[in-house]
Specification:
The chain is an alpha+beta fold. It contains eleven helices and ten strands. It is globular and about 80 Å long. The strands form three sheets. A four-stranded mixed sheet has the order 1-4-5-8. A four-stranded antiparallel sheet has the order 2-3-7-6, with helices on one face.
């Protein structure tokens, strides 16, 4: 059991930190206020290998491990959680769906474009009436000749209006319930496919979140991913890995909030001394940094097990639950430590506070994570 990062991982961590400081940091405030994605960043992320992090090199990916992926996400989300979320959704959801379940021809045609940074990808599971209960989706695909006809809509889709390649889940057999859901490849510009409402969000504002609308969209039969009726199972498997990425994202939010607060507490003086001297502040920092280390251990372990090819529904749920709720506590305490200044846009902690709640909602709410953990624990003991 080795708790040390390798020399290569230390170099990777430093290179991502430098990239984030140079290429992401100058854009944070502008695009948070605009509420849109800085499109010039897409190719820069691709050039760094950050849009094909765990994708094999034969498909233009970087071929990193899942532990490397967590390291990368923490460093990016520490600077801007919005960029961290875009990277996580693109890699863990869309690209990994191709990586695990697509045919060789589909990988060569689509995955190489996603991994190289030619375009962002999106993953369409959530609907207005099918959030935590994903199997309740209403979007349908009906087979007609050599095409599927797609009708319905998806909501809260990260990269929704930007992506040129999307994976969309739809009901193909209404009588089969979960076993009647299939996965399809959809390309931007396909007739009948349009973008609906773009969300004006509380936080993570630079990340594109949009509604997808399907009106008699013709999808070639070859764009079915895997077998018909396997889409729900595929999606649940993808979410297991996706939860590790959200845990990594949450580490970045928590670390950013805590490190910013630590620096502020050393400089801010009240009662003729730095507020870092006060026990109330010290205990906030002590608890926060202790929990951050615990969250890292949970997240690295889940990522390590994923690298070993293990099934990780419990481990990924634990990592995501603990790390995401830590992000919320750390961001809240960061605002408290900054006092009145923490409530202004002059300091970055107000943005961490707005951004952090996404972590406890996206890719399964905290309540869903506790349900998953409870079911596994009850069956194991």
């Amino acid at each position: 059991m080795d708790f040390l990062l390798s020399e290569e991982q230390e170099i990777l961590k430093e290179s991502i930190r430098n990239f984030a400081g140079k290429e992401i940091q100058p854009l944070v405030k502008e695009y948070d206020e605009k509420g849109c994605w800085p499109e010039e960043l897409t190719q820069k992320l691709g050039d760094m290998g950050l849009l094909g992090i765990v994708i094999p090199t034969e498909y233009a990916g970087a071929g990193y491990s899942n532990v490397d992926y967590v390291i990368i996400l923490e460093e990016i989300a520490k600077v801007d959680p919005a960029v961290g979320l875009v990277v996580a959704a693109h890699n863990s959801l869309c690209s990994n769906h191709f990586n695990f379940f697509a045919s060789e021809d589909q990988k060569k045609k689509y995955l190489t474009r996603l991994a190289s940074g030619q375009t962002l990808g999106a993953w369409g599971l959530t609907e207005s009436s099918a959030g935590s209960d994903a199997a309740a989706m209403k979007t349908k695909a009906e087979k007609k000749g050599d095409h599927w006809i797609l009708n319905g809509s998806k909501t809260f889709i990260t990269n929704g209006s930007l992506a040129e390649i999307l994976v969309v889940m739809a009901v193909t057999d209404p009588q089969a319930e979960k076993k009647g859901i299939s996965s399809f490849i959809l390309e931007k510009g396909t007739e009948g496919f349009s973008i609906g409402k773009k969300e004006d969000k509380l936080g993570i504002r630079a990340s594109d979140t949009a509604e997808l609308i399907f009106e008699d969209v013709q999808i070639p039969a070859d764009n079915l991913i895997g077998e018909e009726g396997k889409g729900y199972r595929q999606a649940m498997s993808i979410l297991d890995g996706g939860r590790v990425s959200i845990a990594g994202f949450s580490l970045g939010v928590a670390a950013g909030a805590l490190e910013t607060s630590l620096k502020y507490a050393k400089k801010r003086e009240q009662f003729q001394q730095p507020i870092a001297n006060f026990q109330a502040i010290q205990w906030m920092l002590a608890d926060g940094f202790t929990e951050l280390e615990a969250a890292r251990l949970l997240t690295y372990r889940a990522a390590f097990l994923e690298d070993q090819g293990k099934k990780i529904p419990k481990e990924s749920a634990m990592a995501k639950l603990f790390s995401s709720e830590l992000a919320v506590r750390a961001a809240r305490d960061a605002v408290q430590i900054h006092g009145g200044y923490g409530f202004t846009k002059d300091y970055p902690v107000e943005k961490y506070y707005r951004d952090c709640m996404l972590a406890t909602i996206g890719e399964g709410t905290s309540e869903i994570q506790r349900w998953i953990i409870a079911q596994k624990v009850l069956s194991e003991y």
